[in-house]
## 1
Amino acid sequence: MADELHDAILRFRASNTNRFVFVHMGDLCCSGGYYAAAPANRIMARPTTLTGSIGVIMSTINIAELAGKIGLSDVTIASGGNKDLLNPLRPVDTNHVAILRRPVQQLYDRFVGIVAKGRNLPVETVRALADGRVFSAADALTNKLVDCIGHEADAMKELRKLADGDVRIYGYSDKNDIRSFLESALIFESADGIIGKLKAALAEESTPRAEYRAR
Amino acid sequence: MADELHDAILRFRASNTNRFVFVHMGDLCCSGGYYAAAPANRIMARPTTLTGSIGVIMSTINIAELAGKIGLSDVTIASGGNKDLLNPLRPVDTNHVAILRRPVQQLYDRFVGIVAKGRNLPVETVRALADGRVFSAADALTNKLVDCIGHEADAMKELRKLADGDVRIYGYSDKNDIRSFLESALIFESADGIIGKLKAALAEESTPRAEYRAR
Amino acid sequence: MADELHDAILRFRASNTNRFVFVHMGDLCCSGGYYAAAPANRIMARPTTLTGSIGVIMSTINIAELAGKIGLSDVTIASGGNKDLLNPLRPVDTNHVAILRRPVQQLYDRFVGIVAKGRNLPVETVRALADGRVFSAADALTNKLVDCIGHEADAMKELRKLADGDVRIYGYSDKNDIRSFLESALIFESADGIIGKLKAALAEESTPRAEYRAR
Amino acid sequence: MADELHDAILRFRASNTNRFVFVHMGDLCCSGGYYAAAPANRIMARPTTLTGSIGVIMSTINIAELAGKIGLSDVTIASGGNKDLLNPLRPVDTNHVAILRRPVQQLYDRFVGIVAKGRNLPVETVRALADGRVFSAADALTNKLVDCIGHEADAMKELRKLADGDVRIYGYSDKNDIRSFLESALIFESADGIIGKLKAALAEESTPRAEYRAR
Amino acid sequence: MADELHDAILRFRASNTNRFVFVHMGDLCCSGGYYAAAPANRIMARPTTLTGSIGVIMSTINIAELAGKIGLSDVTIASGGNKDLLNPLRPVDTNHVAILRRPVQQLYDRFVGIVAKGRNLPVETVRALADGRVFSAADALTNKLVDCIGHEADAMKELRKLADGDVRIYGYSDKNDIRSFLESALIFESADGIIGKLKAALAEESTPRAEYRAR
Amino acid sequence: MADELHDAILRFRASNTNRFVFVHMGDLCCSGGYYAAAPANRIMARPTTLTGSIGVIMSTINIAELAGKIGLSDVTIASGGNKDLLNPLRPVDTNHVAILRRPVQQLYDRFVGIVAKGRNLPVETVRALADGRVFSAADALTNKLVDCIGHEADAMKELRKLADGDVRIYGYSDKNDIRSFLESALIFESADGIIGKLKAALAEESTPRAEYRAR
Amino acid sequence: MADELHDAILRFRASNTNRFVFVHMGDLCCSGGYYAAAPANRIMARPTTLTGSIGVIMSTINIAELAGKIGLSDVTIASGGNKDLLNPLRPVDTNHVAILRRPVQQLYDRFVGIVAKGRNLPVETVRALADGRVFSAADALTNKLVDCIGHEADAMKELRKLADGDVRIYGYSDKNDIRSFLESALIFESADGIIGKLKAALAEESTPRAEYRAR
Amino acid sequence: MADELHDAILRFRASNTNRFVFVHMGDLCCSGGYYAAAPANRIMARPTTLTGSIGVIMSTINIAELAGKIGLSDVTIASGGNKDLLNPLRPVDTNHVAILRRPVQQLYDRFVGIVAKGRNLPVETVRALADGRVFSAADALTNKLVDCIGHEADAMKELRKLADGDVRIYGYSDKNDIRSFLESALIFESADGIIGKLKAALAEESTPRAEYRAR
């Protein structure tokens, strides 16, 4: 989801040079939220925003020890040693961990690259910030992860100045709304400025997959 | 939420010099409730009000020991040492605590500053009161956290005198109501006096974040 | 709530000298119920009424020992030593108890004063009765906490005699009803006698706060 | 409730000398049921009725020992030693028991007096019967707690003879019905004979209070 | 209930000498079912009927030992030693058992008398059968507890012969139906023969009371 | 239920000599199902039918030991030693077992007699088969418990030949349907052949009673 | 159910020589599913079908040891040693197992015979395959349990060729549908080719009975 | 399901040479999802796609040890040693595992062949990749499991170029929709290009069967 939003924002900007994206962060704009926000022209945090948590994580629960205690055992017949990936009823297989660590690392590198390009920072600078930690608004500003700090009214004022004309406000309630808004924008080419309140409402799935997640 | 209300009240006052905000506290006006009330022109507590609890808190439950007892274990593959922030299934990592203590301290300093400015008190005076303790109405008055003590009828009488004319009473039932009321006030510039029954109905979220919370 | 009712009754009496308030107690009129009833002109108990329980109480459950047994632990990052007031997962902090004992004592003194004034008794007499104990109707009469004992029909008869004319009976079903009734009475100035069946329906809240409570 | 019914029946009889109340007991007419029945002109038990259980009881569960075992503890800040009356999480306080024993004893004496007057028996005779025991119909008759034994048809026949005319039968389904029936009877003065199937449907409340209860 | 049905059947028979009651038992016609059937003119069992269980029983569960184990204790303040009858949280009091044994014995004697009279047997004969045991149809016939054995069609044929005319069949589905049927019969005096399929659907109540119960 | 069906089938056959009953068994036609089928003119099993289980059984669960472990005890006040028949909270009383074994044996003898007469076999032959065992279709045929084996279409063909004319098929869905069908047949005398798919849908009751039950 | 379907298919084929049955298996066509499919003219498996599991099984859970541990005991009064067949509360009786093993073996022999006849294989060949194992489509083809392998479109093409004309497709959703379809086919004699997607939706019953079941 | 989709896609391509199938993968397109996608003309992964997990798996839980601990035992009467396949209440039988390993291996070989043919890769190359591991988009591209990487807008652009005309977009929400879409396509022959968002929504069944599953 975060990657799709990110791509939609990039295309929105690319479709017309006098369009731009202005992000005003909520109290929590971490991980996938920051991923989607990174390509904006300008990012304003609230004074109370927590942001950062740049990184990728996969996690699951292993119950092999519990199963042993209560007398459950797994009967698995599989065609290959890794088909049974992270079977929760068996002790953790280090090969399985290595197989999953690889896409985690690749997605992490992509995330770092996106932030570096979006924020116009050296990759090594981003990598040093991207150990998963969270930042207050003040520390995010110091580290150039955001451009300024302010309330919604400040964001509106700055947007009017930048858009140099009449700003239309769209109401949208969830991740699907913002996406269809951005997609319709791609087609009708009518809005000259938007405020994206990006909410990292990442879908929950039972299979382990890479997430840009704030614990 | 508290910070947004606080900002809206500040802008309301700033928009017209003969407007002011009069806060009449309920039985419990602590932490975020006091945060929002601080910029009011005048604060009246009830005789039975508890207020204070000035400070910031984050908390979560760690179940690493329980998981060990019953035989659950966490399998996490993360791109950085802090991505897995305060993972409840692992022993508490002191780096994680340090990362979160920083924004807690910054938000605390902001809270103290807001109270000092709103109540026109020296920062050091506020800091001495702001260790999280609660105050009775009488002690809050002694410490200048409120201006006076009275019932709703007293508040109404004093408001009529101050507003020097007809006071309009608006009914609003929750935090969203008061916010839209204040925002509409910014636009229509018609009300000359309001009573804010601020209720610190802070949104509950599962991720640890800074709160101005009365336990 | 009890303090608001108490204040409304005081204002009702003050608004017109030939108005008065007659309280007929139910089977249980303790603590906050008695608090609200105290300023009435006359109080009649039923022969089977339990009243009293004059005092203030705050209570919560501490589960630190339980948490230790099952392997849960609290992770709290707070800006001050008292922000984490009576955290149920940590051993009880004696400073926290002292902070809360202070408003309990102040509210208790207010309660004693209200009873002394309402019942026209010396403060020391009230203080001796106000250790939280409950009284039967007979003992309450002996101690002057009520004026007389009787059934609803007796109350009606006595009220007719005092009001010296036509008594209007209002039906009201809960604490909000009686309050709006008393408030409307303040405005329309039409009722000459009321029977208040005060029910101490105190709102339940999860935060510890002072209550006038019969266990 | 039992005391209110008792009072309503007394007033019904007092309102007109050629009215009377005839009670026909069900299979169980104990405690509060007998309390309300006592002032009737005549009481008929069924051959299978259990009656008696004259007395007053309060009871609650103390869980102090259980709480200690599982690691819960009570944190109570109260203004007086008896405000925390019979706190279930603390060992039973003998002062608390003494405070409650007093109204139990007073209500018991009132109950004994009501039976003595209603049944025209010496107080000492009633006191000897009123240790809480239950009586069969036969033993209740021997002890003059009832006047006769019979089925509903016998009750109807005897009532017709006493009322000396047309008996109207009212259907009512619960305690509220019988009460409103008796109250309307007080006002319209039209019924000359009633059969009260008194059901001791005592309201359940969580606070300990005196009850006339058959276990 | 059983005693009421029994009385209604007696009155039905007494109201007109050429009326009689014919009972056709179901698969289980024990205890209260037999109590109600006893006054019939004629009783036919099915070949597969179980009957008997003549006697009276009261029972409850005592949890004093369980409460001790888990740390619950009872706090009871009662006006007399027997008010707290068979308190399940306290060890069984032998006085309480003696108090209840008395009505059990009296109701038992009444039951035995009803069977002796209804079946025209010596009281001592009935007493020997009435130790609570159940009887097959054959043994019930041998012991004269029933008059004959047959199926419903046999019952119908015998009834036609006895009623000497047209038999009306009434459908009724539960204990209330049969009772109102018998009561209407008392008033309208129109039915000349009935088949009572008596079902001992005794009401379940939480208070211990005497029952004519087949376990 | 089984005995009633059995009786209805007997009467159906007796009502007209050119009527007969043809039973086509389902996959399970045991115990009470066989009891009802026994008087048929002809019984056809399916190739996959299980039948037999001829006998009578009563069973209940005794929890005396469990009650002792957890600290529950029974308080029973009964008028005779057998009123408390097979009380699950007390150790099994051998007298109680003997009382119940008697009707079990009598019902068993009746069952054996019904099979012997219905299938025209010596009683001793039936008794040897009637130890409760189940039989496959083939073994049931060998032992003359059924007359032939076939599918529903075979049954229909054979019935047409026997009934020598037009066979009316009635749809019926449960035990009540078949019973009312047979009863109406008794009255209207119109059907010349029926197929009874007897389902031993025996009513479940909590009191121990004799059953013809396949475990 | 499986045996009924099997019989209906046999009769369908027998009713008209230019009719035939073409089975196209789903992903799982085992045990009872194969039983019903065996008499088809032609059987096509999918490439991913599992089939086989030829055999008969009865199973239940015995809880005698559990009952002993928690203190439950069975009280059974039965007329014969085998009436209490496989009582789950008592240790397994080897006679009971022997009684049930006999019909299991007989039904197994019938199953083997049906497959041998339907697939035109020697009985001994079938018996060797019929130890309950499952087969992939390929192994089933090698062992002649199916005739060919293909997808639904292949089945349709082959059917059109065989039926030599217009094939009508009937939609049916469960076991009852297919049965009524086959039965109506017997009567109206109109369909010349059908595809049977046999689903072994065997009814679940609590009594142990022979099943053709894939675990 | 996956095999059916795979077959439908093959037939769709075969039905008209200027038709082709373009797959755009979602975040997770593993196992059965990849199986169905393999025959497409062209496969585009998202930058964040996880794919692979090529292989077959069957699994169930064995509770023999748990059953032994709590005192449950299995009573199974079966016609052959393998009828009771992987009975969860008995220790795992190695013959049973061998029986199931065979179709797992055969289905695996089929899966490998499908991938080799669909992607035009040597079988041995596929076999080396098909040990069940997952691949990131980048690694899948390196290993030729996909043809390119891009977002939905890229897929649309490429499709327009390939289809050389107007592309109709169909909305479909689940596996049934896509199947009926493909089937209707087979019949009406009107669409020239489709995008298949294949979701491996494999049906959950309680019987062990081969699955192409990503854990």
## 2
Amino acid sequence: MFNRMVEQHSLDAVFHALADGTRRAMLERLSQGPHSVGDLAAPFDMSLAAASKHIQVLERAGLVRREIEGRSHKCSLEAAPMHAGAEWLRHYERFWNQRLDALERLLRQDSKKRKRK
Amino acid sequence: MFNRMVEQHSLDAVFHALADGTRRAMLERLSQGPHSVGDLAAPFDMSLAAASKHIQVLERAGLVRREIEGRSHKCSLEAAPMHAGAEWLRHYERFWNQRLDALERLLRQDSKKRKRK
């Protein structure tokens, strides 16, 4: 069930949805609880229509669920599709760790040399 | 030094670069070692020019370093900017874990009910 949920919303759509600061800020807001489209648009200097387009990109990636409550649309966070993105990135962890280890060695050698002087 | 490296290549550029299956496949190839532009293009049914455009997107995100060796361009993986993306996603881990826990509970209840029947 979980796997199917993730496959439906491909990595392309997830990473595309995350490639925009406004959409990332909307997700951060939704991590505090459900919000209406108006609430989500409010912190940004943008029309409801523009905010709605961003929310559509998030919905297409499966990251946001929109429900109609009376006259307002309530949006909730759906974090599950992010899991596939995080898993993809995890494979590269050893590469940036190698890089960090190399930087640390360089800094240590540098501080040893300075102490000797 | 590491922080500056990451800040220069914003999350927008990193997630945008990752939002394409061809570019993700190129990064997977580069994780095995440096490759020429021709090598990177070969598995895909695309021109060198098209492959070069994808590599440019990866370079702009700081994920690939291109060096000229004689007449060929050698590309190497630079995984460090992915770290910021992984860190961003890490904040949402608890949300997809909550969801997974809830699914697990549902499945357990379901199997208990079946056993009783």
